[in-house]
Fold these 3 entries.
Entry 1:
Amino acid sequence: MDRWAWLTGAIIFEVGATLSLKGALDFPILYIVIVVGYLIAFICLSQTLKAGMPLGVAYGVWGSAGVALTALLAHLIFAEPLTLVMWLGILLVIIGVLFVEIGSQHASQHLTKQHLTKEHSTKERAT
């Protein structure tokens, strides 16, 4: 499975488990959903890393998407407040994660170029 699909699964299960925390206050049986949800979320997150996504990117996207979705869904489901300042905070977190992703891609390209240059130099010395 694709690393982004694994990460999406991790986000969905983490958000579901987190939202269930609120419901478990009235319905303790939901603690089962919480434990299972977090377990599956961490399994999906580990598969994301196994598929090759850098840890900083995976955790950043997972965390920021989790915060944004949890805040939005808690507003819709539990009528919790979602103010303009909260939206701004969520936006800043997402922007920060985008910078981490862009930096990760740049670093990956730089390392690939270094590796190719090193291989080329080694082949020239061998001939």
Note: The chain has a mean pLDDT of 89.
Entry 2:
Amino acid sequence: MRIFVIILLAFSFLPSHSQEKQFADKSFYLIDSLVLEELPEHNQKLIDSCLTLYHQTEEDSLKWKYLNAIAENTYTDTWYSYQKLASEISQKKIRAQLTPKERKIFLNYYSTDINNEAFWYSEKSQLQTAEKLYKTAIELLLNLKDSSNLAITLNNLAGNYNRQGKTQKAIETYERSIFIAKQCNSSSTGQIISSLAKVYDELGREEEAVNLLNEALSYIDQTKSIANKAQILENIGYLLSKRSDFNYQKTLDYYKKSLAINKQLNYKLKIASNHYRIGELHFKINNTDLAMQHFKKAIRLD
């Protein structure tokens, strides 16, 4: 299930592509206009391996899982094309004659599809549409008694509320999400706590925000997505850097840990963001030469 992790970044990089695009073979990759070279290397490998398995099986549950794995671990808009294919499978199955056990499985898959579709609309700033979809998924998850995915969907709904300016409603929904996540020992607990920390940061409640991010860090070993681990680490560094009594070395250590993970993933846009944040940090202590070195690295990766 796709989870919204708030990014504490004021600076972003957009990839540019000047060469003629070569589209991937649709018979294997299933979607139109896929340009593999525009994807991070680890995403290319993920898509290739999942689709190889997809084409080797006749089981719909496995086909859904392979498409869902692509949708939830790809960091460009390509993910939504695979998400729609996964949703087609779950919707087709729940309309068919199934055993109670099979029906529960595909209803669970469908709840994930609804959450992910809501995530897409939220990212496209269609917040009212996203809110309705999240609430539909939540109702289904309550009926299925799926606490882990319920916590994630509540987190996403809270983020959607926050983007609409419904701050108190967002905080209450985050708190409900965190409570459920802790109860079921969810692997997403750290990510959800870090999302609430962002809200407190926006409200100027920096002490509470840092405390929450440190709590999130205590759950980081449970976090399945190492990309999200990297983001949590960078978020902590960013909030620490804003404090009047900030510790330079401690802040730098968080940024470096985040950078090491993103280098492992070869996630160039995030590596660029890491270098930008490290540059900001050096600039803050008047180390202009070192700051410029990191700013230049960030620009080269743009």
Note: Residues 9-18 have pLDDT under 50 and may be disordered.
Entry 3:
Amino acid sequence: MALPRAVRPGSCLPADPALRRRLKTPPIPRPFGVALAWPALTWFIALSCFVPLRQAFAAGPPCRDVPTYVLHDLGAPAGYTDSGGTAVNAWGQVAATASVADAETTLTDAFLAQIGRLTDVGVLVDPGDPWRSSASAINAAGQLAGTFTPGDRSSTQGFVYARGEVEIFLVPGSSDTEADGINVLGQVAGSFTIANFPYATHAFVRQPDGTLVDLGTFGGENAGASAINSLGEVAGEVDDAHGDYHAFVTQGAKKVPLVLKGLGTDSDATALNDVGEVVGGVLLDPDNLTYHAFLYTRGKMLDLGTLPGTDSSYAYGINASGQVVGTSYRGGLFQSGRGWVYLHGRMRDLNGLLEPGVAKRWTVTDANGINDLGQIVGSAQNATGHSRAVLLTPRR
């Protein structure tokens, strides 16, 4: 709830001079005896009411409440020990990936989850070898985009799942294709590696009719798209002739690329909303691999900092209100990760916002997506040490 416009933040007095005059001189008739006592009564009211109000406002606007979150364990398909959520749509549907480690490698399986319901997408992608798929994004229509590697590991391919059916695609002339984002129109954004040129990567957009558009490298050596909004604008990373990577976003009807610079050397954009706000991570200390989450808004890149006890952070999701989620961790090894949400100009540890008692059983390690209702998807570690895909629903 926002503060009334007539009241200045940090003050219990109206900002409008006319309202201030009316407050100081109440326009009510009063007898002569009451008039003599009125100044004393006015001072009594001021001391007993206005002063505590001023102290309350000085401590911070009381109407900008921070929610607590209900944690929902979304589970994992049968046979898998761990899982993690990557994206959530407006209906609370979650794109997630399950995993289990065997003697040789880690097997992964894409699935679609809702509270109390789970659909194994990996089985549909490759029925004969369903253990090498991952889910990246989901739109409001419930279409899920992801990537899988066939059993012969000949190439990486993109896929789109919708209503029990799967479309698999490989950009013509490519050896590998990754699908990383999908918007409400069904447009898919990602990257592909040109065949016979293993270090040449281009960004692409796949139209709903299957048409594939090569976005090239935006003047750089390589480029990849991580996300796409409902306007068809994409965000990702592009490298220059010196080998430095920079976050970028395309803008306007002509999708002109804008390279985002200003905070550090290498940077990467992971998500954007429909007003062109972009989030990601920027490398501040190459020697120690220290990254900080950033928010690009109104033409500026803002360093979102880190949680106490950590020195690195990365942002992975943003909603229409500009609320950002990500992970804060220690060192370049992604150790001791903690999920966070950026609200009212401050990064907040999600573990401190869970309902009472929940934090004793769960540790939120990653926050990867947030919808316009404020629901957050990510991963949490339980008492057994396994990670599970979780959905955090705000409760105010």
Note: The chain is about 10% helix and 45% strand.
